[in-house]
Amino acid sequence: MAVNSVSLEVFRNLLASVAEEMGVTLGRTSYSANMKERRDYSCGVFDAAGSMVAQAAHIPVHLGAMPASVGAVLDAFDVGPGDVAILNDPYLGGTHLPDVSLMAPVHLADGTLAGYVANRGHHADIGGMSPGSLPLSTELFQEGVIIPPLKLIEGGRLNEPLLELICRNTRTPDERRGDFSAQLAAIRTGQRRFLDLVGRYGLATLNEHTAALFDYAEVLTRAALRKLPDGAYSFADAMEDDGQGNEHLVIACTATLADGHVTFDFDGTTTETDGCVNTPLAVTEAVALYVVRCLLGGDVPANDGVRRAVTVVAERGSLVNANPPHAVSGGNVETSQRIGDVLFGCLAQAAPDVIPAASQGTMNNVLAGGTNPATGKPFVYYETLAGGMGGGPLRAGASGVHSHMTNTLNTPAEALEFAFPIRVRRYAIRPRTGGIGRHPGGDGVVRELEFIARSTVSLITERRTSRPYGLAGGGPGVGGENVVLRSGGMDEQLPAKATIELRPGDILRVSTPGGGGWGSP
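RESULT FIELD:
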């Protein structure tokens, strides 16, 4: 079959459908509320060289980093028929330890390698020093079980001791087994659907269209970048703190546009820090790809062809390219959001009529664990909370949504109260928290959780002392706030990052930031 504009679009959607169906399988068969309800997972399809050819509309920070983890597996060992690899090491293409990736080859009946399928799921607990495995850590070893590239299944046979070792080091082993089973089911779905495509069209035709899709994505990306004026555009913002007393950690970047190519150079960014907000390079690259894809719109294939027009330069040992074993649990969720704010701030100077003001700039991570009095078993709850989107050149920002590097849902109150000893006391839009402007920023939300059991609660949040910036004369969004309403009547203001003990009857109130406004009001 000759490649033409029609066949290219057909194969683009066929390959994406493989990833999408993997995601449906994972969501429907998963065990935890974090995967089943919030859909905190991502799926991708790769060619025989390990390049991403298609992805589902899942989580940007997962998907942008996933090719590096596939590459780490291929560098470590041969993945043969019947094998499934597992890893979560942030310094080998991972993001943070709770995000565990599975990857498997797709072989034809004669043993020919056709490609790979992979998924990454956020496990609500993977061990470590506090429930939820996003602690206020000072080194990676405190954050949970570190899994280098290993074979979870070899030649069709499950490595039961490896699975038992991983699950035994988590607080909720039965839940982990259920979620791993869902990830394996998604792998099988991806393999079957990939083979269906090969059986219908032939491997040669599929490979021909895959190569053409890479080229097509590159051409469209370069064309979009050429619409922007060449030049160097600099911007800086900062993380408020790292949970260890180090404050105002600067992230600086210069975006250089030149003939359809963009280079993001993070010269001037602070060095790696003591706390948990460092990021491995794969996360920083994932943000850069996401920001560029936002410029492109939905008509550009989501594959590694986009990478050909993007270069990331980040000094080793900096906050955005940390060395092991620096702690990274908050880097994937919080620092990634600030990197996005900085890159959008750079490009807003080149494309002022395109780029919106800053969104809430945090994922508002809430983690809790203890013993459920109803069952006598341990529980771990994890959720990220929505906030305000930034207003843009065309419209006001949306209120109460997840933005940028996260693409998850909330945990519905009914599901949360069914699964955990927690009662949702209040869940509402936080009015007048979006920045003023011709197009105002969206409002944040207020989430109040009453704890029925004694619980250890961790918060990893940002934009509590700083505010999401406005653009083109718009005002900043209102910052967030963390408060504990003690059962005895005392209110306790919490910092952006904290681990505390709550007693039955205590209420945690998390108020999330609004987005910045765009344009003079």
